Amino acid sequence: MAVALCTAALPFGLKAAEPQVVLPATAQGWAELALQDIEAAYQITAENHPGMADAQNPNFHRQLLHAKTNALLLVPQVNSAYG
After folding, report:
1. Which residues lie below 8 Å from residue 33, measured CB to CB, with a gap of 6+?
2. Domain ranges for the chain
3. Cβ atoms < 10 Å from Cβ of 22
4. pLDDT in tens, 6-53
5. CB of 65 within 8 A of CB of 17?
């Protein structure tokens, strides 16, 4: 019985341990978050995408950098979660 109670309570305990997400309250905050997302997406892709080592696609890195540059140009327009 004690094991059943502990097991039943486990999902609730895990919920309490999850970090709380704090969303930006201002347009500037959303723009900063977008910038962080773009930087992280670029870094994760550069470190993990097989295209970085694909001899048949030597321009992959340049295309990835171009995509990052274009995304960064849009950051000033971000002012909400939708943006």
Report:
1. 24, 78
2. 24-83
3. 7
4. 555 555 555 667 788 899 999 999 999 999 999 999 999 999 999 999
5. no
